[in-house]
Amino acid sequence: MNAAPAHDPRHAPVLLAEVMSALAVAPGETHVDGTFGAGGYTRAILAAGAAHVLAFDRDPDAIAEGRPLVEEAGGRLVLVPERFSRMAEALAERGIDSVDGVALDIGVSSMQLDRPERGFSFAEDGPLSMSMEQSGRTAADIVNEADEAEIADILYLFGEERQSRRVARAIVAARPITRTAELAAIVRRALGHRPHEKKDPATRTFQALRIAVNRELEELEQGLAAAERVLKPGGRLCVVNFHSGEDRLLKRFLRTRSGGDPAVSRHLPGAARTTPPPTFDAPAKAVRASEAEVTRNPRSRSATLRWARRTAASPWPVERGAP
User: Fold this and answer.
1) What's the predicted TM-score (pTM) here?
2) Which of 64, 119, 174, 181 has the most Cβ atoms closer than 10 angstroms to its Cβ?
3) Which domain holds residue 40?
4) What CATH number does residue 132 fall under?
């Protein structure tokens, strides 16, 4: 397969100018692109003069299609076929203990959405997969094997589907379900879809299943802690997200790590405990896409960029269930 052309509007990186401004790449620096995709951020970071970019992606297609860019970069780019949550371990394995910047673009890529055989979208019919790694549990496994209550919880928590119980009941009644078009039709019937409606009601169900299949919130939580460990003092963490659950998690992490949200002891409810020194400066104000970008790239409509600069404090100990 050939690498996607950098100018292809379907693969335009969201909020690119804003991300690059926040990263403030200087010649000779080392950066991590935790979500390589079609390579949009990586290309820009290399063009800005970074000496090395380590680009992570768990999708085998993205890694395979990025190889021409590795050759083009002349030794400055390393593709890492890993989840970004493992960036600390993967960097250590390559003899790197710290970096100057980490960029993350959370969620599904346009490349994945545009390929019916990946099962992320109902725009065209395809197998109900949604696995970024193309292995392990799939969306079909969830809709055909999970009980009604679990499906309803997934739809409500990850898709913010207010009628999650109704949709879950319709899914269970229609089993087995193996195709994206089948699932979309089931959801539309359950919710009374009107063709003229701007947003297809199946969108929330597909989003929820994708997040569940790929454990995206858990991945983000672990990835933020990993970025905290690998960033140098003064290093920049830049995260673009598209989902309210992701944004809440990210805001909480940055607020806590910048000293804006004192932690509370689990052993003494209501009693404040001594927290470690802040590992990030106060985060910058959230940035959203301009009207011009939304017109150019509708995917950017729900995008939010949050970023912060690393202090010299030691990383916080990671607690189960804590950001």
Assistant:
1) 0.89
2) 119
3) 9-111+216-309
4) 1.10.150.170
pLDDT, tens digit, 9 for 90 and up, residues 162-217: 999 999 999 999 999 999 999 999 999 999 877 777 789 999 999 999 999 999 99
* Euclidean distance between the first and the last CA atom of the chain, given in angstroms as a whole number: 38
Pair (63, 186) in one structural domain: no
Beta bridge partners of 307: 238
Beta bridge partners of 102: 32, 237
Note whether residue 314 is domain-resident: no
- 39 token code pair: 């390579």
- 182 and 228 in a single domain? The answer is no
Q: Is residue 83 part of a domain?
A: yes
Angle between helix 202-214 and 148-159 (nearest 10): 100
Q: Looking at residue 150, what DSSP letter applies?
A: H
Beta strands in the chain (DSSP E): 30-33, 52-56, 77-80, 99-105, 231-241, 287-288, 304-309
